[in-house]
């Protein structure tokens, strides 16, 4: 019984680490723009027409020059992140259900004479 619980705990821990996979180690333009718009409160107009754009170019990143283009990039990144997290939550739910089944089975086996 203890071995089964340890194995299931390891699976849950592996799922926790998989969340980090949604965020690339090398940030992409969509992730950077999204964070700048959400956390820093910068408008799409500021991102597309200021020195910030020149900073992106200096880093070797190409961003669109229109506010609509910036908005589309941010929305695209948000959609991808949302889908990735939804898949991860489904995996976690399945793992939790499997753990629950194993615990019930272990309890049944332990209660047998």
Tell me about this structure.
This protein is mainly α and 113 residues long. The protein has one domain. The protein is built from five helices and no strands. It is rod-shaped, with a radius of gyration of 22 Å. The two termini are 16 Å apart. About 7% of the residues have low confidence.
User: What is the C-alpha radius of gyration, as a whole number of Å?
Assistant: 22 Å
Number of domains: 1
Question: Helix amount, in percent?
Answer: over 70%
Mind describing the biggest β-sheet?
Answer: none
User: How many E strands?
Assistant: 0
- Overall mean pLDDT: 79
Distance between termini? Answer: 16 Å
Strand content: under 5%
Shape label? rod-shaped
Please tally the helical runs, counting DSSP H or I stretches of 4 or more residues. Answer: 5
Indicate the structural class: mainly alpha
What is the helix/strand order?
HHHHH
